[in-house]
Write a structure and sequence with these properties.
InterPro entries: O-antigen_ligase-rel_domated (IPR007016), WaaL-like (IPR051533). This protein has 417 residues and is mainly alpha-helical. Helix content is 70%, strand content 2%. The protein has 21 helices and two strands. Helix 2 packs antiparallel against helix 3.
């Protein structure tokens, strides 16, 4: 009888263990996160009870987005079914959050698992960067962080050739996605102070900020500034304390912008050259302008139905070739904007669905600074990256969307996850 009771108790919480598994592994590697989703689905099926389903109409939005990809696929006339697998997160996470209800404590534990995974991922990145940068030559210890010889330390940072900066540092994910995860982690640490020991919380915030500095993703800098301002706005501090906090946030922002060679160079280019199209641009914001220019022009030609998922990149590459956007063509850049990319692939319906998703997220975030910070972070990143083009983006965005949409508390709750 006792064994039956214990087995039943364990079985009832298997879905919760699966959720923790995904939250912990998503910062570490896409393949590990994929395996975690499969395990989560399997455990959820085992512990499924019909009375535990979450009847939430908003969970249909992501599957509808998946349907829009299917329609775009049929419209393109291409017989590559790769999108079925690459976009499955739009179906998997609504199912996971539909068949089980998660308590407030379980939901907070998911965020704690995410913070733990980020911490481990950050340490691994630092260890690997250190290992790659050190060697022993003729019995002498040598530290060489530059990837390419003949480049100075600062120059190697600016142009993505340093083991401690940018894509060479972020070994598990593209920099934009690792930075996205870190911003979410920082928001959790800032808006849920009671969930972590004070000293540990401060150390982790500083560690995550340092990681963001090394990753050097400019969208994350913008998102970080917004999170810091939100923290001040929603805090119960006195006016003097808020002014002091504002000064600190400005100092941190200036440190990130002018202390980071890549960010400093990006600002210098904008100030000197303005926001103009440079066909030979190879780095930073200038490459985004090339992608956006191509996307806007292609959308004007086919605004209603779009080009379909598989055909969109071919159309972009054709535009790059026609207009001599050499580096954009070489790297086969997508639109680097979730809204433009979705419009190109699936037409105006996809944009309307995105508007619905973000409208719901904002409405569900009323009264919760943590959720509002999540939504703003996603919104900022959606402007600079087509987040549904890679598993690292589409799975995490789907997870956060379903997490917020199924929040058991109504608006007005500030301190509950």
């Amino acid at each position: 009888m006792m064994m039956t009771f214990k087995f039943g108790s364990i079985r009832n919480n298997l879905h919760y263990k699966g959720a923790l598994l995904y939250a912990f592994f998503i910062p570490l590697h896409p393949k590990m996160a994929t395996l975690a989703i499969i395990i989560w689905l399997f455990l959820s099926m085992i512990s499924y009870k019909s009375g535990n389903v979450v009847k939430n109409k908003f969970l249909w939005l992501l599957p509808l987005f998946y349907v829009s990809y299917a329609v775009g696929f049929l419209n393109s006339g291409i017989s590559d079914y790769g999108f079925i697998e690459s976009k499955l997160s739009l179906l998997a996470f609504p199912v996971l959050f539909f068949i089980h209800d998660y308590s407030l404590q379980q939901r907070m534990d998911m965020l704690r698992a995410l913070v733990a995974g980020l911490t481990l991922a950050g340490f691994v990145c630092l260890l690997v960067a250190t290992y790659r940068s050190t060697s022993i030559e003729n019995g002498i210890f040598v530290f060489q962080a530059n990837v390419l010889s003949g480049k100075g330390f600062v120059e190697s940072i600016m142009y993505g050739g340093n083991y401690f900066f940018g894509r060479h540092f972020s070994i598990f994910h593209q920099t934009v996605y690792f930075a996205l995860y870190l911003c979410i982690g920082i928001a959790v640490l800032m808006f849920r102070p009671n969930e972590f020991k004070p000293l540990l919380r401060i150390v982790l915030i500083m560690f995550f900020l340092a990681l963001l500095f090394l990753i050097s993703n400019k969208a994350s800098f913008i998102a970080l500034v917004m999170v810091l301002q939100m923290l001040l706005f929603f805090s119960t501090y006195s006016v003097r304390q808020k002014v002091r906090g504002l000064a600190i946030s400005i100092a941190v922002t200036l440190l990130f912008v002018f202390g980071n060679p890549r960010a400093r160079e990006a600002i210098r280019k904008v100030v000197v050259d303005g926001i103009t199209i440079n066909k030979n641009e190879r780095y930073g914001f200038g490459t985004r302008l090339l992608s956006w220019d191509a996307a806007f022009n292609l959308i004007q030609q086919k605004p209603i139905l779009g080009y379909g998922h598989e055909n969109t990149q071919k159309q972009l590459n054709t535009y790059y070739l026609k207009n001599n956007y050499t580096f954009a063509l070489k790297e086969s850049y997508n639109a680097h904007n979730l809204w433009l990319q979705s419009w190109l692939e699936n037409g105006i319906v996809a944009v309307l669905l995105l508007l619905c998703v973000f409208s719901v997220l904002f409405s569900k975030s009323v009264g919760s600074p943590l959720f509002l910070s999540f939504v703003l972070i996603l919104l900022v990143n959606s402007i600079f990256e087509g987040m549904f083009n890679r598993f690292s983006g589409i799975s995490f965005v789907s997870f956060i969307c379903c997490y917020i949409m199924t929040n058991p508390k109504k608006g007005g709750v500030v301190d509950e996850a």
